[in-house]
């Protein structure tokens, strides 16, 4: 990324304009890089597009990561893997990307402003916009939980990025684990404490335990139904508790 040197030379933020230009300028102002004084010199149209792509990507990732109020280690891991494996950034460029990410997550500028400018510049690159939307979904699910604020951004993003609205549902079905039916099997809500879930599980497991059904002399059809119910209860409890442990890790 030879163009990064011109960015770090200062002044390019004003050339880009819009919220991304302002963000880039603010990041440069807060960075620890040795910046050359004065104008960065001539910058080509391709270099401007590269700068917009680079700034927009890490700005939107920063907004998504902070949407639920806290940037967790799993989200940081996703961003770091993207920098290392997809973009193959060197150390200097990686630090600058982190600077944009951190600046964006703290600014009051909304996700929509960055997304709209990005989509306008790359209006003809459908595959690029689609791949980035998929990355946003991956980041939102990094901790295994879809927070309502993250979900709101993902619902809004297709129209902003000009990707098919159907992409939201297809990615959600593939990536989001809906535990509501499992909580319903246990007779509790998702807001229940671990203690309450364990109590509910033990009560149901006792009621539907095969040995108890046999001891009561109930019909075979009901016994088979109870055995299936007992299996559902155990699987629901195991999945719910494993998910809660992953969230707390």
Explained architecture:
The chain is mainly alpha-helical. The protein folds into 2 domains: 4-175, no CATH class; 180-248, DnaJ domain (Helix Hairpins). It is 72% helix and 0% strand. The protein has 14 helices and no strands. The chain has helices at 4-8, 12-16, 18-30, 45-65, 73-86, 91-106, 111-121, 126-140, 148-161, 166-175, 180-186, 194-207, 210-215, 220-248. It is elongated and about 90 Å long. The relative contact order is 0.09. Mean pLDDT is 84; it is low at 32-40.
Key features of this structure:
249 residues; mainly alpha; Helix Hairpins
Summary?
The protein has 249 residues and is mainly alpha-helical. 72% of the residues lie in helices and 0% in strands.
Shape: elongated
Q: Can you tell me the number of structural domains? A: 2
Characterize the quaternary organization of these chains: single chain
Helix-strand topology string: HHHHHHHHHHHHHH
Q: Specify the biggest β-sheet.
A: none
Structural class: mainly alpha
Radius of gyration, rounded? 25 Å
Low-pLDDT regions? 32-40
DSSP E strands, number: 0
What's the average pLDDT?
Answer: 84
Span between termini: 36 Å
Helix percent band: over 70%
- Helix tally equals 14
Beta-strand residue percentage: under 5%
């Amino acid at each position: 990324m030879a163009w990064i040197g011109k960015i770090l030379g200062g002044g390019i933020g004003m050339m880009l304009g819009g919220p991304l230009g302002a963000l880039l300028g603010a990041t440069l102002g807060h960075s620890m890089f040795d910046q050359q004084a004065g104008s960065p010199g001539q910058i080509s149209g391709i270099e401007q597009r590269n700068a917009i792509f680079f700034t927009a990507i890490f700005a939107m990732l920063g907004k998504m990561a902070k949407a639920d109020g806290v940037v967790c280690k799993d989200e940081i891991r996703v961003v770091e893997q993207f920098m290392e494996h997809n973009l193959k950034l060197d150390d200097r460029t990686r630090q600058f990307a982190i600077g944009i990410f951190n600046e964006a997550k703290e600014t009051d500028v909304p996700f929509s402003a960055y997304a709209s400018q990005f989509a306008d510049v790359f209006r003809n690159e459908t595959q690029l916009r689609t791949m980035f939307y998929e990355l946003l979904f991956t980041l939102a699910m990094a901790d295994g939980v879809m927070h309502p604020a993250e979900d709101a951004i993902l619902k809004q993003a297709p129209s902003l990025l000009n990707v098919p609205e159907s992409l939201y549902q297809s990615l959600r079905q593939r990536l989001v684990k809906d535990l509501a039916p499992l909580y319903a099997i246990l007779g509790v809500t998702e807001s229940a404490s671990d203690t309450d879930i364990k109590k509910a599980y033990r009560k149901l497991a006792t009621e539907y335990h095969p040995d108890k059904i046999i001891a009561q002399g109930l019909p075979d059809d009901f016994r088979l139904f109870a055995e299936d119910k007992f299996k559902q209860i155990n699987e629901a409890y195991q999945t719910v508790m494993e998910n809660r442990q992953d969230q707390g890790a």
